[in-house]
Amino acid sequence: MISEKSTSIRQWMTLNPVCITPETTVPDAALLMRQGGFRRLPVLEGGKLVGIVTDRDLKEAMPSDATSLSIWELNYLVAKLPVREVMSYPVITIGEDATLEQAAKLMLENKVGGLPVISGEKLVGIVTVSDVLRAFVHSGAN
Questions:
Q1: Which residues, 6 or more positions from 103, have their beta carbon under 8 angstroms from its beta carbon?
Q2: Preceding amide of 90 cis, omega within 30
Q3: What secondary structure, in 3-state letters, does 2-58 show?
Q4: CB-based burial label for 83 (10 Å; 0-12, 13-18, 19+)
Q5: CA dihedral (17, 18, 24, 28) positive or negative
Q6: CA 56 to chain centre
Q7: Residue 121: pLDDT band by 50, 70, 90 thresholds?
Q8: Is 134 helix (H, G, I), strand (E, B) or coil?
Q9: Going by DSSP bridges, is the β-strand pair 114-119/94-95 parallel, antiparallel, or unpaired?
Q10: The CATH number of the domain where 88 resides is what?
Q11: What is the mean pLDDT of residues 33-45?
């Protein structure tokens, strides 16, 4: 069982996650994810959370092999595609005072793997299924 002390999201979330803007291109977002080992990136506009883009969103934005366009046409189109066109919104978020159990329940109910953590309207972190599992494993070691 995770102890009361360790249930705070603050202890387990990633602080100040890497973010992108709605105008970031799909290839640039994919490169950021690959380099950082992320599976999701919050999308901020004017400091406000306006969306989230996941590795799955980016993969789905890539053209099918069944297309009649040439490889050069495909690369040109994808290179210009902003994440605004593929991001998810509105974003399911959780407050910074929430517990890991609340985050886990919200992720299960909404079938998402991570939640941006907000304080007021400001993004302060991100909590993922991996964070919840890490906390669970850590509590079992005590």
A1: 9, 94, 115, 127, 132
A2: yes
A3: CCCHHHEHHHHCEECCCCECCCCEHHHHHHHHHHHCCCEEEEEECCEEEEEEEHHHH
A4: buried
A5: negative
A6: 10
A7: confident
A8: helix
A9: parallel
A10: 3.10.580.10
A11: 96
Please give the full DSSP string across 81-121, using - where no structure is assigned: -BGGGT-B-SPP-EETT-BHHHHHHHHHHHT-SEEEEEETT
Domain holding 66, by residue range, is 5-140
| Contact assessment for residue 27 and residue 79, using Cβ atoms and an 8 Å cutoff | yes
> For residue 88, which phi and psi values (nearest 5 degrees)?
-95, 140
Question: pLDDT at position 63, please?
Answer: 64
Q: How many domains does the chain have?
A: 1
Helix (H, G, I), strand (E, B) or coil at 124: strand
pLDDT tens, 2-27?
Answer: 444 458 999 999 999 999 999 999 99
**Residues whose CB is less than 8 angstroms from the CB of residue 67 and which lie 6 or more positions away in sequence, other chains included:** 74
